[in-house]
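ARCHIVE CARD
Drawer: 12
Card no.: 0347
Subject: one protein chain, sequence and derived structure
Cross-reference: see card 0346
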Amino acid sequence: MKLKNTIKYQGVKKTSVKKSSKKVNSIVKPTKIPDNNYKSFFNNNQKITNFLINLKLLLEKKDGLNSNTKKGINCSIYLIKIKTSSNKYIHFIYDSQKQTYYSQTESKADLPKLKDQIRWGYGSKKICKGITNKFVNKQYYKAELSILVYSKNNNDYSLCGLLLLNNLKQNGLYLNLICSLQKLGSYLLGLTEKIAKYLNKTHIYLKSLEAPMPIYIHKGYEFIDGNVSITISEGTKFRNNPKSAVLKKSKYYINQWGDLHFKTIKKSFSKVIRKSKRANKINKKTHILFNINGNMDDGFLMYKKL
């Protein structure tokens, strides 16, 4: 027997026919970043407790992720800030080496030192290069879930990385900001995916500036379509090392890329590009990204389906 099924997504209705024994996949490619879901991740103490227990398990599982930086700094102290209401936050400090949370007395003594790394920019200026401390602070206080990673030397802390997340409608998780020392970025992106799955999220959304775009593409993020085209700067890794960051994602050459390092592209890819109407319209010396959504100042919209 055949049943009619009406699918609703972002105000669009689509009628499909299916057999009763099969499921219909109603997830389509996002056309924008969903609105904020003002219902908190953690609206009661039990949810907070469960999350902290599971976060501890996530941090104990290595899964190929290493919190040691390229310089050999051991970043093992985590500050977890959870927003419980419009202007209320609670903080927890976790030591991944000892696999235990700080006591209330320890947290009260060390929390000001950790927060000062953000408040006064001692640590954020070091890891969030090109971003003002004012912007970092604004995102930090706006985020519903913040995870900051530190190294500790005696009683001194140094910020290694930060991860700021918000709840979105339509099962989305928004990555407000991610900054880190070298080698920690992949670790934090992996942790974001684990947290998203724990929270039953299906998509992660973000806005990317030009410089980190190759990293996000390499990690499986896609652009949300738009009508913007940008010329890639000289210093971007798209130019310097496109093979490792972009080459595997051939659809970006077909759908959204103009001429980009023809000499380093396999013949099968270059034939596809040269047949592209878009590629024929641009100067062969330029490097242009087509039909994306956003701008150079605020960033370009990207997402990843989990």
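Annotation on reverse: The first strand starts at residue 2 and ends at 9. The two ends are 32 Å apart (CA to CA).
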